[in-house]
From TrEMBL:
InterPro entries: cNMP-bd_dom (IPR000595), cNMP-bd_dom_sf (IPR018490), Env_Response_Regulators (IPR050397), HTH_CRP (IPR012318), RmlC-like_jellyroll (IPR014710), WH-like_DNA-bd_sf (IPR036388), WH_DNA-bd_sf (IPR036390)
Top-level taxonomic group: Bacteria
Entry's Gene Ontology cellular component terms: cytosol
Species this protein is from: Alcaligenes phenolicus
Listed Pfam families: cNMP_binding (PF00027), HTH_Crp_2 (PF13545)
Keywords for this protein: DNA-binding, Transcription, Transcription regulation
Ranges of residues in domain Cyclic nucleotide-binding: 15-104
Cross-referenced PROSITE patterns: CNMP_BINDING_3, HTH_CRP_2
PANTHER family: CRP FAMILY TRANSCRIPTIONAL REGULATORY PROTEIN, LISTERIOLYSIN REGULATORY PROTEIN
Name used for this protein in its record: Crp/Fnr family transcriptional regulator
GO MF term list: DNA binding; DNA-binding transcription factor activity
């Protein structure tokens, strides 16, 4: 990581693409670069929300611990995403836990800088608002699916949402560009690891997907959607 120009990386992110060099430098100087090892915590649920972040490199998984002790996967954060946005929600504590799935780097600003920075750089506020809106939309979709669809259809919708977010085309079809476990899919669809593994294996045997360790490729998106979503 030492050879990477992180200020240049910050400038290359879509959320800051309209800022000039002076503004990028101002953002950089007011923040603090933090590196995270794989599987380390960025922040913890109910911890005091003392910083907010923009992810520069890597992958962050945001999970919420439920009252019964189970964990709910909320979303994956990619480079350019603003995370830890408790100040935007006027919360004093983080509502979820963020875990670095890979070696990652983020620029962090103190919580007390939120109002000042978002006034000077409205793109930060816009990104946070987009994140909140997307989370609410995803939560509505998942709640509707849990109450109206069979588990196979719920898993298919969860997989297709991930494909739309982080899919990349290749010779064998459209693959997830991030590592996703069967447990992640189970959490997203509101089912068990056993059921998610059984359904994914069935899709693999039918030739609808190519399933590897933490990786899934859909050979034909239309064929997959028709085969899975239109039955049951």
């Amino acid at each position: 990581m030492t050879d990477i120009s992180y200020p240049s990386l910050l400038a290359s992110l879509p959320v800051f693409s309209q800022l000039d060099a002076a503004s990028i430098n101002e953002l950089w100087q007011e923040g603090r670069l933090i590196h995270y090892d794989k599987d380390s915590q960025v922040f913890r649920q109910e911890q005091s929300s003392d910083h907010f972040f923009v992810l520069l490199q890597g992958l962050i998984k945001v999970v919420r611990t439920m009252p019964n002790g189970s964990q709910l996967l909320v979303r994956f954060a990619l480079p350019g995403d603003v995370i830890g946005i408790a100040p935007a929600l006027r919360r004093r504590n983080y509502p979820a836990t963020a875990i670095s799935v890979t070696t990652s780097a983020a620029l962090a600003w103190p919580e007390k800088s939120w109002d000042s920075l978002t006034q000077r750089f409205p793109c930060l506020l816009s990104s946070a608002q987009d994140t909140v809106a997307q989370r609410l939309s995803d939560a509505d979709d998942r709640l509707l699916e849990i109450h109206s669809l069979e588990v196979e259809q719920r898993l298919a919708h969860s997989l297709l949402r991930l494909i739309r977010q982080v899919g990349q085309s290749g010779a064998q079809g459209t693959s997830l560009s991030i590592p996703v476990t069967r447990q992640d899919l189970a959490d997203l669809a509101g089912t068990t690891l056993y059921t998610a593994s059984r359904v994914v294996s069935s899709w693999d045997h039918q030739g609808l997907i190519l399933a590897g360790r933490k990786q899934i490729t859909i050979a034909d998106l239309d064929k997959f959607a028709q085969a899975v979503l239109e039955r049951g």
